[in-house]
Amino acid sequence: MGKSMEGFLRFLICSIFFSIISRAAAVDTISPRQSIKIGETLVSSNGRFELGFFRPGSSNLYLGIWYKKPATGTVVWVANRENPLSDGEGVLVLYPKGPLAILNSTKGVIWLSNTSRSAESPVAQLLDSGNLVVKDGKPENYLWQSFDYPSDTLLPGYIATRNEAWKKLQNWVDRFLSSWRSTDDPAPGQYSARIVTRGFPQLLIEKGSKIQHRVGPWNGNGFEMLTSYVKPNLINYYA
User: Fold this and answer.
1) From 16-20, 61-65, 168-172, 176-180, the region with the lowest mean pLDDT
2) d(CA 71, CA 236)
3) Which residue among 97, 147, 159, 183 is buried most deeply as judged by most CB within 10 Å?
4) How many other CB atoms sit within 10 Å of the CB of residue 220?
5) This prediction's pTM
6) How crowded is residue 190: how many other Cβ atoms within 10 Å of its Cβ?
C-alpha cells in the first residue's frame, strides 16, 4: 500500500472518529442534575440552533440562543436581557420542580423562568425549532417555553400552520418583540412590534409610544394590508 493511500486512510479514520465524538458531545437537554456553564452549550438535534452564554460586547454575559447552521451566529433569543452577568461568571440550572434559573458567581438568581406548575421529572430541551422548553412527562406537556417570551425575533417554527395562527395571536395580548438597545446591549430598545386584538386584530410597530406602522386587519389567513404612518399612501398585501 502506497504512502499516499495510507495517509488518506488515516485522515478518513480520524475524520470519522472526530465526527462521532463531536456528535456524542452535542446534547440538547439538561436535567436537574446537570447545568450549563460558560463555554458549554446545548445544540438542537438538527444542529441548527445553539444555546449558551455569550458576550455581545466586551464585558457583560447573557444566556441566548443563536443560529449554529448556517454559522451566522445571529442571536434569536436572550433570557436575561435586562439583567446581565457583570462579574464574568454564570451558570444555567434546572431546579427539581421545573424552573430554569441563571445564577451568578455568588449563586444569586438573576433570571428565573416563569413556570406556573411544578414538575415531577422536568427536562429542559432545545428543540429543532429554536424553542427552549421545560417539559414533564408527555413530549408536548410544556411547563414553560421561550417562544412565549420572544426577544427581537419571531422564528418560523412559532406558527407551524395557518390553522394555528389565530390561537397564537390570541396568546400575544401581553407579548411583543422589541429591538436591542444597541449592537452590544440586548436590553429592550425603542422599537417594538405587538399584536392588538381589540376589534380586528392588528400588528403595530411602534417607536416608543408612537405608532410607526400598522399591519392588518387579520382575516383568518393573514394580515390584509399595511398602513404606514410615515407615508400617507396605503400599501396592500394579500396573504
Assistant:
1) 16-20
2) 35
3) 147
4) 9
5) 0.78
6) 12
